[in-house]
Design goal:
By secondary structure, this protein is of the alpha/beta class. The protein has nine helices and 16 strands. It is 34% helix and 16% strand. The protein binds 4'-deoxy-4'-aminopyridoxal-5'-phosphate. The site of 4'-deoxy-4'-aminopyridoxal-5'-phosphate has 11 residues, from helix 3.
């Protein structure tokens, strides 16, 4: 029996994709081999790669000015790869810190430059808001401005993406890419790990504007230099072939759902159900300001935290899994990525109401 999986990542996959991968496991479309056994330079895998790139470009509406790269290293490696590719002769990069992930990016950048904290969303309740553009205090000549547009742990999402003109905006979109349309033209760079909305862990998405490929530091490893990776169509080193194949199946699935705008409407509905349930009672608490509440990661606390274990055990008994909050903040967190069906959120909300009624 399959459960409803509310994990933050690796996370729920569309069941159709898993079934298709299972069907094609031993013999991919008459090739007589599994995708993981194929040469990355062979005709079969090249077709899988090109199709995944094309579908992603269409889904994300990536303009011709931007390259799409499939890399390795995950979101955290990009915290080093970004400064090594972006600093050029500049000594500063600016950071908007809205939670744990952008804070990690800010700290890692100090190995390569003098990072400047342009704004912070930290309040006396922790990270609970995305500072508006008017609150950002940029330094004189930053190489770029870094933003994490969805903070997976704190459940803070940035909805208003400013236009920074000549200053490249770099965004960590790991945990909400493909959940809503993004105006890619406003960004110099987007990056993200795959294990939330793209597919399985192992492939890292980088979208980078062509003119930014000239800024890499000499110390940047060749395999992580975007210019080299782009010039070799993500095949400078062996790419994570199976993870790219799975991502390709997810992109096809998303197109069958109606694309990013259609999935956004469902994400709005799913997250509203959950936030409405939390807000309607004093039993559950979410501290994030309404305008910054993530549609993907919904952290919440029980007003009486002594009931936490009881809540999680009851959820598990109903097949509602992985609801425990990140250890750094505690409480609960429901991650409701694209692949989590509305029925899953309905089942969770039902359970929350019953749990409250039984314990009141
Ligand atoms: N950024 C964000 C927003 C994330 O959610 C995560 C992982 N949860 C990371 C970066 C780190 O990704 P990885 O573990 O793939 O390096």
């Amino acid at each position: 029996m399959r459960v409803f999986n509310f994990a933050a990542g690796p996370a729920a996959m569309p069941e159709e994709v898993l079934r298709q991968a299972a069907e094609e496991m031993l013999d991919w479309r008459g090739s007589g081999m599994s995708v993981m056994e194929m040469s990355h330079r062979g005709r079969e895998f090249m077709s899988i790669h090109e199709e995944a790139l094309g579908d992603l470009r269409e889904l994300l509406e990536v303009p011709a000015s931007h390259h799409i790269l499939f890399m390795q290293g995950g979101g955290l490696a990009e915290n080093a790869i970004v400064p090594m590719n972006m600093l050029g002769s500049r000594k500063t990069a600016d950071f908007v810190v809205t939670g744990s992930w952008s804070n990690k990016s800010f700290k890692e950048a100090a190995k390569y430059c003098t990072p400047h904290l342009a704004a912070s969303g930290e309040t006396s309740d922790g990270f609970t808001r995305a500072p508006r553009r008017a609150e950002w205090q940029l330094s004189d000549d930053p190489a770029y401005v870094h933003l994490c547009t969805n903070e997976t742990i704190h459940g803070v999402e940035t909805f208003d993406i400013p236009d920074l003109g000549d200053i490249p905006l770099v965004a960590d979109v790991s945990s909400h890419v493909l959940s809503r349309p993004l105006d890619v033209a406003k960004f110099g760079v987007l990056f993200g790990g795959a294990q939330k909305n793209i597919g399985m862990a192992g492939v890292t998405l980088v979208v980078v504007r062509e003119d930014l490929l000239e800024r890499a530091l000499a110390i940047c490893p060749s395999a992580f230099e975007w210019k080299t990776v782009a010039a070799n169509n993500s095949m400078y080193n062996t790419p994570p072939t199976y993870a790219i194949y799975i991502a390709g199946l997810v992109f096809k699935w998303l197109k069958r759902q109606g694309g990013v705008r259609a999935i956004e409407a469902r994400n709005v509905e799913k997250s509203k159900l959950l936030y409405d349930t939390i807000d309607a009672s004093d039993f559950y608490i979410n501290k994030v300001e309404r305008a910054s509440r993530s549609r993907m990661n919904v952290p919440f606390f029980l007003a009486d935290e002594s009931r936490n274990e009881d809540f999680l055990a009851g959820a598990k008994a109903r097949g509602l899994m992985q609801l425990k909050g990140h250890k750094s903040v505690g409480g609960m967190r429901a991650s409701i990525y694209n692949a989590v069906p509305l029925e899953g959120v309905n089942a969770l909300v039902e359970y929350m109401k019953e749990f409250e009624k039984d314990r009141a």
